[in-house]
Design brief:
Length: 135
């Protein structure tokens, strides 16, 4: 009877230990599933982070290129402004030269007209004298 009693106690203890083992196995399985889920979320998060970093670098490179282009455009606008000022000065200088040439030409024309009037008067006088001599 004592052996039966020990068998029962041992059987009960074995049954109790089996239940504990089953519970530990279930907990282990649940933790493994949880760990797999965590690893998958971590992997997904790392992929997103890598993607975001790549996009950030792309945007930074694009911004750098745009800033460089903007700087070049500003320099070109300055150069064009300077060239425009130089061109305006050159055109004004040429205009002043043309105005002087116009004044000189007008003075020469006026002198030529005065000379023409004088010549016409002399011609008229000479023709009168010739007619006077011929008559």
């Amino acid at each position: 009877a004592e052996v039966d009693s020990m068998k029962n106690v041992t059987g009960d203890e074995l049954s109790h230990l089996q239940k504990k083992l089953d519970a530990v196995e279930e907990e282990k399985h649940a933790q493994e599933t949880q760990l797999k889920d965590y690893v998958e979320r971590l992997r997904t998060t790392e992929e997103k982070l890598t993607s975001i970093k790549a996009e950030k670098k792309k945007l930074k490179d694009s911004a750098t290129a745009k800033n460089k282009e903007l700087t070049q455009l500003r320099e070109r606008v300055k150069a064009l402004g300077s060239e425009s000022n130089d061109e305006v000065k050159r055109v004004l200088s040429q205009l002043a030269e043309l105005q002087e040439l116009q004044k000189t030409t007008v003075a020469e024309r006026d002198a030529a007209n005065a000379s023409k009037v004088d010549l016409e008067q002399r011609l008229t006088m000479l023709e009168s004298e010739r007619e006077g001599l011929m008559s």
